[in-house]
Specification:
Number of strands: 11
Largest sheet: 6 strands, parallel
Shape: elongated
Strand order of the largest sheet: 5-4-1-9-10-11
Distance between the termini: 30 Å
Order of helices and strands: HEHEEHHHHEHEEEEHEHEEH
Number of helices: 10
Oligomer: single chain
CATH superfamily of the largest domain: TPP-binding domain
CATH architecture of the largest domain: 3-Layer(aba) Sandwich
């Protein structure tokens, strides 16, 4: 990664018990981001939740109404269930599809698009499968868990992209071999795809000036790794979200609140500084 930009003394993090946004921390992060030439944004379900999309264990659109729902969802969205009873898996997939189709990108997604246009280089590493980033206009998105609406035939290794599941026969079948299609995302019990990790590593090798975690509730090792690398190299790290995570006490700046609201505040500072810089030229 390129040379570090140290956080200003006394502005390390917002206390996790505070729900309001401290202006000095927003200004500090906005100033650092305004000076940066590159940034990585790691995004999770809480960012989509600001669009009104519920989630259970990272899967958008799933409502956990009762404690036992967790095991039911995991069984239904497992590769074993898809093989044995595809109509059961697809019943849950249709529920998710209905929820995803019913929401729009929020202000947080829009800010990330604006920052992509302002920064010479930026990337989004997301565990969300709803494609709200792309619907908002983001182009450099690494989908660590694949995408709900990319359908795959495992036998033919053919994939197709869809806007929704509306109009599809359920369960949908491959036009070539008649096998049941599945979303091109890992189901419960399956490993994560390799290609996103390869692309992420290439981005990390090039380096970033700042690393953000936005709306990530559970900091799995592959999500924490870019933050820990940045922290080790003295590069500013920022966590934004409503939940306390394993890295909340490690990052340089911690904002507890709505990801969309915090991103909007930080993005406003970046744009303000950009205008002031332009006026001085």
């Amino acid at each position: 990664m390129p040379g570090p930009r140290k956080a200003a003394a006394g502005t390390k993090r917002m206390k996790t018990g505070v729900t309001g946004l401290r202006r000095d921390l927003v200004d500090a992060v906005g100033a650092l981001l305004g000076q940066a030439r590159s940034a990585l944004f790691i995004t999770g379900p809480a960012l989509s939740a600001d669009s009104g999309l519920p989630h259970f264990r990272g899967v958008p659109g799933l409502h956990r109404r009762k404690p036992e729902d967790g095991k039911v969802f995991e069984r239904a969205l497992s590769v074993d269930m898809l093989t044995a009873k595809p109509e059961t898996t697809w019943r849950y997939l249709l529920e998710i599809d209905t929820c995803v189709r019913g929401v729009k990108p929020n202000r947080g997604h829009e800010v990330l698009v604006e920052l992509e246009q302002l920064l010479p280089r930026s990337a989004i590493m997301t565990i969300n499968v709803d494609r709200l980033h792309q619907r908002a206009g983001s182009r450099s998105v690494i989908e660590m868990h694949g995408a709900l609406h990319d359908l795959l035939c495992k036998r033919c290794e053919l994939s197709s992209r869809h806007e929704s599941f509306a109009g599809l026969a359920i369960p949908p079948r491959c036009a070539v071999c008649n096998s049941v299609l599945r979303p091109d995302m890992p189901l419960f019990g399956e490993p994560l795809p390799v290609d996103p990790f390869t692309r992420l590593q290439a981005e990390l090798d090039e380096g970033f000036d700042m690393v953000f975690a936005v709306g990530v509730g559970k900091m799995y090792s592959y999500l924490a790794r870019p933050l820990l690398i940045a922290k080790q190299e003295g590069i500013p790290t920022v966590e934004i979200g409503v939940e306390h995570t394993e890295l909340s006490e490690v990052v340089d700046f911690r904002f507890r609140g709505s990801p969309a609201r915090v991103l909007d505040s930080i993005g406003g500072i970046v744009k303000q500084l950009g205008r002031l810089s332009h006026e001085k030229l």
